[in-house]
Amino acid sequence: MNVLFLDQFSDLGGAQQCLLDLVPAIQASGWNMTCAVPGDGMLIRKLRDRGVPVHSLRLAPLTSGRKKLLDFWRFAFDAPRLARRISSLAAETHADLLYVNGPRVLPAAAWAARKSGRPLVFHCHSHLGDASARKLAGRSLQLASARVIACCRYVARPLWPFIDPGRLHIIYNGVAATGAEIVIKKSGPSIGLIGRISPEKGQVEFVLAAQRLAGKYARCQFIICGAPLFSSPQAHRYFERVREVAAGLPVVFRGWQDDVNAVLSGLDVLVVPSLHEPGAPRIILEAFAARVPVVAFASGGIPEIVIQNKTGFLIEPPEPQALAAKLDALLQAPGQLHDIVGHAYETWKEKFTLERYQREVLAVMGLTQTLSATGRSI
Fold first, then answer.
1. Confidence check: pLDDT of 70 > 50
2. Both ends of the chain: CA-CA distance in Å?
3. Would you say the C-alpha torsion 86, 172, 353, 367 has a positive or negative sign?
4. Which residues of 142-170 are buried (b: 16+ CB within 10 A; e: fewer)?
5. Which domains does the chain have, with CATH numbers?
6. Is the pLDDT of residue 168 over 70?
7. DSSP letter at 37?
8. What is the pTM of this model?
9. ∠ Cα 330 335 339 (to 5°)
10. What are phi and psi of 194, to 5 degrees?
11. Sheet holding 54-56, edge to edge
12. Percent of the chain at pLDDT above 70?
């Protein structure tokens, strides 16, 4: 089977890492994989390093966050050209299946799929909260009679009115076992946050919690690992605000790190203070696999993967003082973390391995192509 993968970003984020995770399984299955993405980000290099041909897509720039009227005009003007480009690539690569990894590419891909009769799988990694974006995605799915993979129920919920339940698959992310060695810490405890720097990820809330703890735990270190991605001016402005709030505190900015497991190996606690989490972040699963305890705000799909007081700790309300209080309690009684990391690790082995994720996604892709080839409804 020949598969054309389409993504809306070439910078690395969670969705792009999920795409990279599929590459070895697709290659092992004997399928041919081609990708098309915009820009010149790290995803392109990583795909080519794995032997995957990559083609260029040109997407009109849109405002980060809530979209403006000009963005909708830009998007509408750009869609026909993008659809023609996707149709051309599909024909050139003899694609048997289109796999869409981001909603911005979905309308054009749906038009190309409908025109050519090719089946389409849409992998939805983020909650489509905006009503217009939700409706556009839903109508596109109906146009292409698409099959949908959602990374959690929270992400799937906005799409329920638009698709038949039989074409919707909830497939939670999976991660590989960690190969990093545990770092023997010679100083105080290390509490870390790993993820792209943006307002919804809660770096300011993390620093404000650190502010409440720094005076009490003089040797405690707070790690922020990540960078503002996707060349967003808003994210860069937010990063500057984070740095201003952190001034004078024992906060270390590690920047973007390719080896997340190496970062996790040096942490005593991972904090996921997402205020408006759009999905079910894979960093939590990576912490489970690395036996690092997780403290997270109960937002988005996080409560679907973290069991309160069994595999991690959920904080409500999502406020710095509540986060600081929980971290304070854990630092004073670290013994309670032992059972948590044990349960989390067993949960990872049972539900969130990379092999399980690859197997389930490829099964959906194979089913979609088979039903399309035999002329049956997909």
1. no
2. 17
3. negative
4. ebbbbbbbbbbebbbebbeebbeeebbbe
5. 2-173+354-373 (3.40.50.2000), 190-351 (3.40.50.2000)
6. yes
7. E
8. 0.91
9. 100
10. -125, 125
11. 54-56, 32-37, 2-6, 97-100, 120-124, 147-150, 168-170
12. 91
